[in-house]
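Subject: sequence -> structure tokens, single chain

Hey, anyone have a minute? Need the predicted structure for the following. Not urgent.
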Amino acid sequence: MRTAKCLLLSSLLLLGPLTIQAQDEAPSADPDVTIRQEGDRTIEEYRVNGFLYAIKVTPKNGKPYFLVRADGSDGNFIRADQPDMLIPAWEIFRW
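Reply:
Had a minute. Here:
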């Protein structure tokens, strides 16, 4: 019985650093924000795992606005406050 407790304790001590290392490598849900100046505007790019999903544009004189992806393709962004009517093209059922 005593050897079983010793083996259990030693295995827990050996596996402890491995679980801590695995937690450190987990991907973060927080977005990476890149801020840059472009003329008289401040541009903030929001990325998750390297995927650019939104851009916030803050002009020197005026209200800030967001550009969001229109259909998932690269470079196709629309203003979030003035979107065109986008119709979802999801296939729900197929006969």
